[in-house]
């Protein structure tokens, strides 16, 4: 590659003969500026989607609602309500008694474990600090 007849520049060597046409073309190419073509973008049609569809038909309501009428007599009497309250109170008393019995059973079940825990903590404290 030390002696190459081709070079990157447009300089001509004195040893090579170049025709006048070739010289004119080379001069014209050197003078031209590279012009990039401008690409104009075409508008792309956008489809719009509506969220709601149009109402096709309107319907008129012609019926009038019937007015509310008061019943002639209530279904339950005062005695029915009184008896219901008495029964509910008895159920409440029974459930609270059962709850109290369950709490007593739970206390009796956990009493030995809590007693052992308290004595263990006392003994550990006395060993560590006395």
Notes on the protein architecture:
The protein is built from 2 helices and no strands. It is mainly alpha-helical. It has a domain of 54 residues.
The general outline is: flat
What is the helix tally? Answer: 2
Q: Give unreliable regions as ranges.
A: none
Quickly give the structural class: mainly alpha
Strand content: under 5%
Chain-averaged pLDDT: 81
Beta strands, count: 0
Separation of the first and last Cα atoms: 100 Å
Order of helices and strands: HH
Residue share in helix: 40-55%
| Major sheet summary line | none
Q: C-alpha Rg, in Å? A: 54 Å
How is this structure best summarized?
This protein is mostly helical. Helix content is 49%, strand content 0%.
Supply database-style keywords:
single chain; 130 residues; mainly alpha; 49% helix; 0% strand
Secondary structure elements and pairings:
Layout: H1 20-31, H2 78-129
């Amino acid at each position: 590659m030390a002696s190459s007849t081709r070079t990157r520049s447009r300089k001509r060597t004195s040893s090579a003969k170049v025709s006048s046409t070739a010289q004119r073309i080379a001069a014209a190419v050197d003078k031209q500026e590279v012009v990039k073509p401008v690409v104009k973008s075409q508008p792309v049609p956008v489809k719009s989607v509506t969220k709601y569809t149009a109402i096709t038909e309107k319907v008129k309501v012609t019926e009038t609602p019937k007015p509310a009428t008061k019943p002639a007599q209530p279904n339950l009497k005062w005695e029915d309500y009184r008896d219901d309250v008495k029964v509910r109170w008895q159920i409440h008393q029974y459930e609270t008694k059962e709850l109290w019995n369950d709490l007593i059973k739970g206390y009796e079940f956990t009493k030995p474990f809590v007693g052992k825990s308290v004595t263990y903590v006392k003994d550990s404290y006395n060993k560590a600090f006395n």
